[in-house]
């Protein structure tokens, strides 16, 4: 068997990729799912639709490559993190829409859970601030607001999971999650890698709902249905999977993924470094029987989804790639700044009271300026995170590995290099998230011998060098910081 498969269950779509021994894609299929926004601040997914799409893209990718499931040595999974759902333990039927990581309905609940200690009440154990982003508060909200759910949960009739658990339940019949996804719930102790009884009691969550926590890289079970009999051997949350796919295995290695959101991760080795600058401490990965590896993470809520907003809500473009050509119709941003605080501001601010603004508008402004401001906002937010990460870690970055769908946008990548004043390095294969899931499954089953072999697959595609003078860089970034202040305190 010469191939490994990988499921990438993302925020906007699900894909299945088939990878050969050289780390090259030989087959892929992808399908979007609906985004449901029933009221301001709410974002939901239909888990049944997502599983149906998963089955469809697996079959389509195999058929497109002229392969059978028996040609796969193993399958791995990567997933949108923090998105939370509950389902019937007997029938597998979802009992409510999945609450997406971008959803902000738990804002008041997070303040209540913080009490006198505030948002850092659980940071020492979990590495996370109390914020609407994470799965634990979403689960508590479901228990409090879905009629009859708490009684059924306490009777042992309900299962909870993030999207990895949902896909694994349907694919293998196992109720599991891996350490990377569990570390995003606010319910797991970073050191013991176990659910924390004290936090569960404070959150008032029945233990029977929770999945079993397993290493990221290791044999989990065998597939059913469309992947009947295929070993399932790896789970990584999407940003950790991208880190794995970028071969960031050494302490000090870092990558930035430009997808629906934007996520900068720095490998800190076997040490869970606590942030004082608004970053998250998270599990990077764990290979079966080995020690966990940790990372510092800066999470930005809105990156590619800002371009989707231009396409779907503002109707300024018909397809996402058009944003670059529209932005190129003007020579600069025209002093227009877009702060995409649709779900509040994530790292390093953690301000759930913020909302999106476009600042600096005059009659001079045209569509190209807005498009450029949307792209530049991704780069500014990444600088916010990188400066916090350098302060926390003491590591001065000379280059930044990048990946994800937005990195094909040369205008954005050049501006990112300019505003950071560091080299931005795009690999030959930019879809490192799904590649990382394949690597995990192949490593677990001996398809690849070790991580040194995986390192050899990484190859530089293009390097973007900073060309902006320091005075202009400082002026632009100061204006961005001023625009951020205009987004704050919108929600009382």
What does this structure look like?
- With 492 residues, the protein is an alpha/beta fold.
- The chain is 34% helix and 23% strand.
- The protein has 16 helices and 21 strands.
- It has helices at residues 47-65, 107-114, 123-126, 135-145, 149-154, 163-172, 179-182, 197-203, 238-245, 304-312, 322-327, 367-393, 410-420, 432-444, 451-455, 470-487, and strands at residues 3-9, 13-20, 25-32, 44-45, 72-79, 84-88, 98-99, 158-162, 176-178, 212-214, 217-222, 231-237, 254-258, 262-269, 280-285, 293-300, 337-339, 357-359, 399-403, 423-427, 460-464.
- A seven-stranded mixed β-sheet has the order 15-16-14-13-19-20-21. A six-stranded mixed β-sheet has the order 3-2-1-5-12-11, sandwiched between helices.
- Strand 15 (280-285) and strand 16 form a beta hairpin.
- Helix 10 (304-312) packs antiparallel against helix 12 (367-393) and helix 12 packs across helix 13.
- It is globular, with a radius of gyration of 21 Å.
- The termini are far apart.
- The model has no long low-confidence stretch (mean pLDDT 93).
């Amino acid at each position: 068997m010469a191939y490994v498969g990988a499921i990438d269950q993302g925020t906007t779509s699900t894909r299945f990729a088939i990878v050969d021994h050289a780390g090259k894609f030989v087959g892929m299929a992808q399908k979007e799912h609906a985004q449901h926004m029933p009221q301001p601040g709410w974002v939901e997914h239909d888990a049944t639709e997502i599983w149906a799409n998963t089955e469809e893209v697996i079959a389509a990718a195999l058929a497109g490559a002229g392969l059978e499931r028996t040609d796969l040595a193993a399958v791995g999974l990567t997933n949108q993190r923090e998105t939370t759902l509950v389902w019937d333990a007997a029938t597998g039927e979802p009992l409510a829409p999945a609450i997406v990581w971008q959803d902000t309905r738990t804002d008041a609940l997070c303040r209540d859970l913080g009490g006198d200690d505030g948002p850092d009440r659980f940071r020492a154990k979990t590495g996370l601030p109390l914020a609407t982003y994470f799965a634990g508060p979403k689960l508590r909200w479901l228990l409090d607001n879905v009629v009859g759910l708490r009684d059924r949960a306490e009777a042992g009739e309900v299962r909870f999971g993030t999207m990895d658990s949902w896909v694994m339940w349907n694919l293998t019949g196992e109720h599991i999650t891996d350490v990377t996804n569990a570390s995003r719930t606010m319910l797991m102790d970073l050191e013991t890698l176990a659910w924390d009884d004290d936090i569960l009691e404070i959150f008032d969550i029945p233990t029977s709902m929770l999945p079993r926590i397993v290493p990221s890289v290791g044999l989990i079970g065998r597939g059913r249905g469309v992947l009947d009999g295929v070993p399932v051997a790896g789970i990584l949350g999407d940003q950790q999977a991208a880190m794995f796919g970028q071969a960031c295995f050494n302490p000090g290695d870092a990558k930035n993924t430009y997808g629906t959101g934007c996520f900068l991760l720095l490998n800190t080795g076997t040490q869970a470094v606590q942030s004082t600058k608004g970053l998250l401490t998270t599990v990077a990965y764990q290979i079966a029987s080995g020690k966990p590896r940790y990372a510092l993470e800066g999470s930005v809520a809105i990156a590619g989804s800002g371009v989707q907003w231009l396409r779907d809500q503002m109707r300024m473009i018909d397809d996402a790639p058009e944003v670059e050509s529209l932005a190129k119709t003007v020579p600069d941003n025209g002093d227009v700044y877009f702060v995409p605080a649709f779900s509040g501001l994530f790292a390093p601010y953690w301000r759930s009271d913020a909302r999106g603004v476009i600042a600096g508008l005059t009659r001079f402004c045209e569509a190209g300026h807005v498009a450029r401001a949307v792209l530049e906002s991704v780069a500014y937010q990444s600088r916010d995170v990188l400066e916090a990460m350098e302060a926390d870690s003491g590591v001065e970055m000379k280059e930044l590995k990048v990946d994800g769908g937005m990195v094909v946008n040369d205008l954005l990548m050049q501006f990112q290099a300019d505003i950071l004043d560091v080299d931005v390095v795009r690999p030959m294969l930019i879809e490192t998230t799904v590649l990382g899931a394949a690597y995990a499954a192949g490593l677990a089953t001996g398809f690849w011998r070790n991580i040194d072999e995986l390192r050899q697959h990484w190859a530089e595609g293009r390097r973007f060098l900073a060309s902006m003078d320091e005075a202009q860089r400082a002026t632009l970034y100061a204006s961005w910081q001023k625009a951020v202040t205009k987004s704050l305190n919108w929600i009382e």
